[in-house]
Amino acid sequence: MTNDSGFLQQLERVIAERRSASPDASYTASLLASGHQRIAQKVGEEGVELALAGVGDDRARIVAETADLLYHVLVLLAARGVRLNEVLQELEQRHKP
Length: 97
Prior knowledge:
By secondary structure, the chain is mainly alpha-helical. It has one domain (3-95): MazG-like (Helix Hairpins, Orthogonal Bundle), CATH 1.10.287.1080. It is 76% helix and 0% strand. It is built from five helices and no strands. It has helices at residues 6-18, 27-34, 36-54, 59-80, 84-95. α1 packs across α4 and α3 runs antiparallel to α4 (59-80). The radius of gyration is 15 Å and the shape is globular.
């Protein structure tokens, strides 16, 4: 695996640390405390926002919406006990001839 995913793995660690923070002090902690359904809803919302940005010409909006989606996906993975590395391994397996 390359270091291209290094920051995402760092963000995964930050999300795990925020799990123990007060929901009043951390958006991540409040999102984790809200439960799987709410987190999944946020992933869906961010996916739709990215899809809508994708048909437009605003490159900065595409970048911002992609960042939002990736963050919320990482929160969902953390909430469900799935590690980013598992997802990356799945992608690598799919890419092999």
